[in-house]
Structures are given as C-alpha cells and as structure tokens.
C-alpha cells in the first residue's frame, strides 16, 4: 500500500510540474483612482495556464495591494457585476480567460467606459440603471394575484421576440461599448432599450403607452446609429441593435395609429 | 437629442430625395446624350410647373435632411447643445433652402443670369 501511495504521489507531482511549467510574470496595468485622481499602476502577476482576468485582479488585491477596489459576486457569468475594460475592450472578467486577451505579456484593466468611477475598478452604475427607468424598462402589471395566470404559448411570436432579448445580465458591457453613449450622455443605451423591447413584447404589461413615449423621446431609440458595438461585445450574445430596430418600428407605427 | 419627429422628418425627406435624385441623373444622361445646349434645356424648364415642383421638392427635402444630419454631428462630435443646437439646425435649414430656392427659381422661372 505504501508503495502504491508513494507511486501515486510521485506520478501526481510529475503531472503538476508538467501542467504548470515556469511561466513568466505578466505585466498588468490597473487603473487606480480615488477622489477623481486616477492613473495606471503596474503590477507583476504570476501567469497560470488557466486564469481569468478576475483571477488576476483578485491576485493583486489579495497578494500585492489590499486597497485595490473592484466589484464581483457570482464568478460564473450570471450576476453581471464584474465587467471592466480589458486591453481597451469591455469584458465580463470572470469569464474572460487571460490567454484570449493578453497582448504579448501585457494586460490592461480599467473601469467600464461611459460611467463615472467610484474607486479604482468600481464604476458607478447609477446612471446606467437610472436610464432603465427613464426608458420605461420596468414592468407595469395588468393583473393582480387574484387573476388567473396569463396563458402564453412558447411559440407565440411575441414570446419568441421577448425570449431573444431576455437573457441580459445587466453587466453594462454594451453600455461601455456604445459610441453613441460616449458621444451623447442623454442616450439611454443598448441595455435599457433592449429591456424595453422585451417588455413591448410582454402581453401582460399595461405600460405600453408610457413606454412608447419614453423610447421615442430625446434619449430614446432614434439616437442609435446601428454601429453594433453592443452586439460585438455582449457576453451573452444578445443583439440589442435588433431590439432597438424593433423599438424604432414600433414607435413609428404607434404615431401612425397602427399599433405595435 | 434625436426624437421621433426629427427622425421621421429625416427618413421621409430621404424617401423623397431618392427617386428625385435618380430622376435628375436620368434626365442629365438623356440631355447629354441628346446633345442639348444650356439654352435648349432652360427653354424646356423655364415656365414649367412640373420642373418647379420636381426641383422645388428636392431642395426642400435636402434642406430638411441635411439640417438634421448636421444637427446630429454637431451634437455628438462638437458638443453643441440646447439653444445653440436648435439655432444651428434652423440656420443650416434656412441656408440650404435659400441657396436651393435661388437655383430652382433661376432654372424654372427667371433668366439664367440670376
């Protein structure tokens, strides 16, 4: 038994050595900001065969500088908390492998574009969610708990249109990717309008007139230039541009009194 | 910045411009092929209500369409906002309409020297 144990151990150690050869440290630039004063700082982080960008940020915070602030929660791509700019592009950092975004030996991590910074990598999400409300991307119930359940078949065209837009995790990657948001601070952005579109297709919703007025207003869907940065970077592979096109169509039909 | 009214005005003006542009190019090619002189062309257009409506509606559509386009670019790239943005939009509209109306008047009513 001892021999077997020993044999197993030696074999396992050999495997570990093979899987994790000596890899050079990565040069990681991380945006540090406090009270509006910001700059990139450099850190050496050990490279691993398998690691995410969030792992790198966590390493810096846990092993080098505990004052580094960043936001995360689930670590599995469900909560939408950990989005940051990685080498200039918005990414969900918990599901972004370093090997796919590393530029030579360099990694640059910054807070999300188009949002104010609270501290370091933590962006202030208030403007993002305020615009969800402004776009009427909120459900207006048409029934009470005493009414029967709405009967909606899975193949209902409205249900299918809603399903295409519904998997948004509110990560704000699309908002950071959008050049119209960068140029026009009034614009609601792809995520809010995508959510509005899923509610336009919700037959249980009683707020469609309010929603049509909101999406046709100055910050609404007609500001979209269909550049599709949101489509390119959405980690859940949604198509907010298509949703916004649906809103443009619906709002236009609405003013001609032809319904949605 | 761009609400449904401005958006619709720009799209509808594009809808008007597209067939008129094709018509204009077709007539130009026809006129060149036929070897018509300037005087011969003007003798056909001056006093013609049809050509006045043709080029008049084109000029109006251009003034609306371009003014809204310049408005968007000025806002997004130069940061012009509020009253200044509205003023610029109307100025571009009025300027293009004035220049275009002069040309339409010259071709369809007055002499070529206007």
Helix and strand element order of chain A = HEEHEEHEEEHHHHHHHH
Number of domains of chain B: 1
Low-pLDDT sequence parts of chain A = 1-19
The proportion of residues in beta strands of chain A is: 5-15%
Describe this structure in words.
- The complex is a heterodimer of chains A (260) and B (114).
- With 260 residues, chain A is of the alpha+beta class.
- Chain A contains eleven helices and seven strands.
- In chain A, a hairpin with a 2-residue loop joins strand 1 and strand 2.
- The longest helix of chain A has 18 residues, at 2-19.
- Chain B has a single domain (4-112), classed as 3 helical TM bundles of succinate and fumarate reductases (Up-down Bundle), CATH 1.20.1300.10.
- Chain B is 84% helix and 0% strand.
- The interface between A and B is medium-sized, with 16 and 10 residues.
Strand-helix topology:
The complex is a heterodimer of chains A (260) and B (114).
Chain A: H1 2-19, E1 25-34, E2 37-46, H2 53-64, E3 83-86, E4 89-92, H3 98-101, E5 106-110, E6 117-119, E7 122-123, H4 126-134, H5 157-165, H6 173-177, H7 179-183, H8 190-200, H9 208-215, H10 229-233, H11 240-255
Parallel strand pairs in A: 1-5
Antiparallel strand pairs in A: 1-2, 3-4, 3-5, 6-7
Helix pairs in contact in A: 4-8, 5-8, 8-11
Chain B: H1 4-34, H2 38-45, H3 49-78, H4 82-108
């Amino acid at each position: 038994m001892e021999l077997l144990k020993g044999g197993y151990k030696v074999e396992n150690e050999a495997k570990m050595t093979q899987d994790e050869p000596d890899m050079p440290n990565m040069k990681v630039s991380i945006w540090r900001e406090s009270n509006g004063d910001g700059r990139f700082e450099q850190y050496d982080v050990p490279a691993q065969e398998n690691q995410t960008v969030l792992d790198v940020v966590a390493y810096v915070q846990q092993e080098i500088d505990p004052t580094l602030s960043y936001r995360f929660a689930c670590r599995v791509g469900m909560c939408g908390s950990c989005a940051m700019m990685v080498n200039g592009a918005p990414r969900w950092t918990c599901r972004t492998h370093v090997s796919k975004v590393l530029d030579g030996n360099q990694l640059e991590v910054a807070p999300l574009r188009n949002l104010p910074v609270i501290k370091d990598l933590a962006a202030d999400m208030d403007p993002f969610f305020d615009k969800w409300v402004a776009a009427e991307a909120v459900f207006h119930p048409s029934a009470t708990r005493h009414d029967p359940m709405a009967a909606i078949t899975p193949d209902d065209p409205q249900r299918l249109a809603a399903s295409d837009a519904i998997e948004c995790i509110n990560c704000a990657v699309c908002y950071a990717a959008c050049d119209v948001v960068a140029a026009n601070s009034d614009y609601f952005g792809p995520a809010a309008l995508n959510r509005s579109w899923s509610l336009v297709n919700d037959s249980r919703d009683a707020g469609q007139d309010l929603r049509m007025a909101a999406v046709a207003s100055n910050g609404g869907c007609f500001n979209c230039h269909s550049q599709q940065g949101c489509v390119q970077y959405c980690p859940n592979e949604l198509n907010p541009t298509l949703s916004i096109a649906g809103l443009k169509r619906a709002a236009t039909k609405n003013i001609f009194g032809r319904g949605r | 910045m761009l609400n449904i009214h401005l958006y619709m005005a720009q799209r509808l003006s594009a809808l008007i411009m597209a067939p008129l542009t094709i018509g204009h190019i077709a007539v130009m090619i026809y006129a060149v092929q036929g070897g018509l002189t300037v005087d011969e062309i003007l003798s056909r257009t001056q006093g013609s209500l049809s050509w006045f409506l043709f080029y008049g509606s084109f000029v109006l559509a251009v003034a609306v369409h371009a003014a809204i386009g310049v408005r968007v670019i000025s806002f997004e790239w130069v940061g012009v906002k509020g009253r200044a943005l509205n003023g610029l939009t109307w100025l571009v509209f009025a300027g293009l309409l004035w220049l275009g109306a002069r040309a339409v008047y010259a071709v369809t009513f007055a002499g070529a020297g206007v």
